[in-house]
Amino acid sequence: MTDGEFLAGHSLYDHADLDRLSLAAPLLGATGWIDGLARLVNIDCSGQPSSCFGDYTDVLRDMFTPLGFSFRRLSAPAGERGTSARSGADIGMVAARRTGRRVCTIYFRMNSLPAGEGWTRPPFALTRQSSRLYGRGTTEMKGAIAAVWAALRAADAVGLGLGYDPVLVFCADRSDGHHPGLRRMASEGLLEGHVMCLDGPATPRIWSGSLGSIHLSVSLEGPEPPDPTSVANPVEAMAPLMARLMRLKEEIEAGASESEQEDLRAALSVSSIHGGTPETDWPTHCRLLLHRSYTAREDFDAVLDELQAAIHEGCAEASHLNVKTSLSGHCAPVQDPDQGPNWPRWTQALSWGFGYPAAKFRRIGSREGSPLGFVQQAGVQELLLGGLRRAACTPHGPDEFTTVEDVEALARSVLAYLAEVPEIPSY
């Protein structure tokens, strides 16, 4: 049976599942998902994956094994190019429940950002105030995991059949931009069917893709010479480099404005410069961080070579210094992830779950790089995006929170999407 036949409805499907879907939705609040979310929030996943992987996987097994999922752990292979993962380190886990149906892969990151300063509540303990649920990761993958768990528990409780076999992939990728877990899973074909990512916004949005993203670190280093007044120190040597980079920035922006009309355009920015201290006359090093976004029409190697050439030119008068560059992060572009047979059903599910009118959905891209670009490079074109993020909920910031209503709305959306029903009821 093709995806098109499924979306159009098929006589083989039990229409009684429509009634079961209606019965399952009100049960979401009784699945115990808040307790499950509390266990996830209790785990600090902001450090090295090895520091939290065991505790995290224990909780996930406790949650999903009773639902019939079997687990497989993945380790980083030796000498993997372009990643910071240690050989043999745990980088992910796959949980699958096979019945022979088509697969929908649901992707979850296991790491989170450090709590940082400014919290008025404990970041790694779930705190409830009215319908608000405070804690690090509540608006991201921890909240999304709780929503999917609630959806699957409610479906099982009423005997609601699923039209897809959900395969859950958990990646212990640190936020260093290399994404070894996801890249390995994608390259080995472990991301089957189409992929759902629930790390997005809680808005009526059809994701049109994202720019590629390159983060490059440039450092100038050198000891103080016998006559420090005769040459530029590492901080001073950044001035001509910055001038060359600003010319390149103008060239990139001019080229983007002359190209075809696009929602997302290539850009270059300097995100930070740091070097020296007030106590020293000769700073021994200065470090600069670059961010280059690029479109799907541009080639990664060509873009990187262009950056390296500009850096070489900008440092031409600094031969007395050691110039080092390091690729600190990379995401490939995501192009037209909504061009597939499953997005219409996903928008219907989001409408049913969150109450979005169909007319409110807009096709919007993202300037922020996404690791799902590597998934497309591996051959999986269709990527569904949803989530719990709202600006008012301060994702990544202090006192991050989600709400009971949003988690259960996302759970309803996932429930409706996966359900073996010929058509999702209209909102």
UniProtKB/TrEMBL annotation:
<dbReference type="InterPro" id="IPR011650">
    <property type="entry name" value="Peptidase_M20_dimer"/>
</dbReference>
<protein>
    <submittedName>
        <fullName>M20/M25/M40 family metallo-hydrolase</fullName>
    </submittedName>
</protein>
<dbReference type="Pfam" id="PF01546">
    <property type="entry name" value="Peptidase_M20"/>
</dbReference>
<dbReference type="InterPro" id="IPR002933">
    <property type="entry name" value="Peptidase_M20"/>
</dbReference>
<dbReference type="InterPro" id="IPR050072">
    <property type="entry name" value="Peptidase_M20A"/>
</dbReference>
<keyword id="KW-0378">Hydrolase</keyword>
<feature type="domain" description="Peptidase M20 dimerisation">
    <location>
        <begin position="228"/>
        <end position="315"/>
    </location>
</feature>
<dbReference type="Pfam" id="PF07687">
    <property type="entry name" value="M20_dimer"/>
</dbReference>
<dbReference type="GO" id="GO:0016787">
    <property type="term" value="F:hydrolase activity"/>
</dbReference>
